[in-house]
Amino acid sequence: MSAMRRTRLGRSAVTVTALGLGGASIGNLYRAVSDADADAVIEAAWAAGVRYFDTAPHYGLGLSERRLGARLRGLPRDEYVLSTKVGRLLVPDPAGADRRDRDGFDVPATTRRAWDFSADGVRRSLDDSLRRLGLDRVDLALIHDPEEGDPVAALAEAYPALHELRDWGVVGAIGVGSKRWQTLARFVAETDIDAVMLAGRYTLLEQPALAELLPACATRGVSVINVGVFNSGLLAVEHPDAEQHYEYGQAPDRLVRRAQRIAEVCRRHRTTLPAAALAFSGAHPAVASIVLGSGRAAHLRRNAELLALPPPPGLWQDLVDHELLSPTAPTPGVNS
User: Fold this and answer.
1) Cα–Cα distance between 111 and 92 in angstroms, integer?
2) CA 20 from centroid of its chain's CA atoms
3) Does pTM top 0.90 for this prediction?
4) Could you list the active site residues?
5) Does domain 6-321 match CATH 3.20.20.100?
6) What angle do CA 97, 66, 6 make, to 5 degrees?
7) Angle in degrees, 0-180, between the axes of helices 63-72 and 119-133, rounded to the nearest 10
8) How do the domains of the chain map onto residue ranges?
9) Quick one: average pLDDT of 205-231?
10) How far apart are CA 336 and CA 333, in angstroms?
11) What is the pLDDT of residues 247-264, one digit of tens each?
């Protein structure tokens, strides 16, 4: 799969590349990243053919948006697609000036996140994001983690507000992002969104979204942006162990063992766990793009190279035979 392959989101005119850059890492997720390193990651993504960039106010309390915007402002605006998210407003928090953010980002807590899925909150969130980005528009606006805030307001207020903004041409496409596939399935069934951003629920490690959400997306013409395909780190290395993250925390022993068994099968087929994880995560026909975060340019380049060199076809049946992969999951070059 080429990182440069482009797919349209739903029925919109917005197209995304097969590989996208996620902005959490350059927002200092887990560890601080220098401005120079963040800039190098974005530059490496562009050089690899990536033309889809995703961010959110949540990522580093706006740091990700500021860094991404600073670099993208120097690139041709019509050549790339940018998404950000609504649902969390950033409000001043003078009391937090002497401490670090408590949501996993290594940044000063001079602001805090405030849930707001109202129509006014959606418009304010996008206006604030554009100011941080220093750009005149975003192409895709996503409701962010509605189940963690107010799912009723997200459906009844945030969605209609985004629908209206799409009708007005303020944004080109709209959608929802969540790690709960059930939340996304409800929006797919009850609204007219263009895309869902599915976090960690369709990976080589586990596929809970396979039976219901992905078929519903295919039927309704909703594109899937697959993120968290390394399960926060557990599938990102050739020899996984308990030191890798899972769901932004410590990986359970049973999942570490499962990842290790998958890695063993990969080695027998002369490939690696990260290569297989990437290839699998983009093979379902509903998936339009895989979005990966990176705090280092070398990691970004490695992932782009792996995406272009899929594992041998025999790997997938071997994983199925060892009960490490669902037999109904589409796989690269076999039944995708």
Assistant:
1) 4
2) 8
3) yes
4) 59
5) yes
6) 145
7) 50
8) 6-321
9) 97
10) 6
11) 878 889 999 999 999 999
